[in-house]
Amino acid sequence: MASNTIRVGNVEIVSLSDGLLEFDLCNFFPSISQEQWQPYESHLTEEHHVRFNLASFLIRSDGKNILVDTGLGPKPTYAPEVPWGQLMHDFAANGVRPEEIDMVVMTHLHRDHVGWNLMMQGEKYVPTFPNARYWMSAIDWEACHQPAVRDRFPNAPTCVWPLAELGLIEFMHGEHAITSTLTAVPTPGHTPGHVSILITSQGERALVLGDAAHNPAQLEQTDWVSRADMDPEVTRQTRRHLVERLEREQIVVAAGHFPAPGFGKVVRLQGRRSWQVL
Length: 278
Ligand SMILES: [Zn+2]
Prior knowledge:
Blueprint: E1 5-8, E2 11-24, H1 25-28, H2 34-37, E3 49-61, E4 64-68, H3 87-93, E5 103-105, E6 118-121, E7 124-127, E8 133-137, H4 138-143, H5 156-159, H6 162-165, E9 169-172, E10 176-177, E11 182-186, E12 195-201, E13 204-208, H7 217-220, H8 232-249, E14 252-254, E15 263-269, E16 272-277
Parallel strand pairs: 4-5, 5-8, 8-9, 13-14
Antiparallel strand pairs: 1-2, 2-3, 3-4, 6-7, 10-11, 11-12, 12-13, 14-15, 15-16
The chain binds zinc ion (ZN).
């Protein structure tokens, strides 16, 4: 497997994982037929399922440790066999301690990006990363409280809302400078406040994609939306513009749901846009 660490100027990005999720195609991409998938079979499992890595990216920059997204969270006691819930093991395997995290940044508030934010200690919620503050889009914060779409954010009441009572939230509004090297760039559609994280250092750039794409096939088929994309048309527009930019400017991409470690570039091979693993 490719290295789980890359450098972008003075910044180091480490790809960590909470494990995997797997779905039937007809379940996750209900509007895309089996035939349409044929040219992209290499991006499916042998059983023709879509399999998603659950990456968290640890960004070491300016003496700070910044964690982007926090996976699905601890394994449920009723289902200890699930193939996720691994993030703390991966922290240990990479010699990282939760106390070292200074900032947690969420690309959006869906359940597989906020799962390890908090732990229960007795009756109380405590931050899993005790020295961190938590950055999230103000628009997604609003959305996860709206009755009409609240079911799209099923673990927000336990993994996001208590952060407010703990006084740990930093809201991001529009294009938002998080640090001197990290900028949140609005990439809405998947959720209304979805952001990707642009890293710029010494003239080099990388983008933590978030869920602006779930599978490498969508780099060419930018119109393929999944059931998880809350606004299909905005998702398509965002993805089209973003992927064009990533190809044109040859920005390194950290794609959290692509096969681990998820580092690559958008390139054109024989006229077709495709994913080139770093
Ligand atoms: Zn996701």
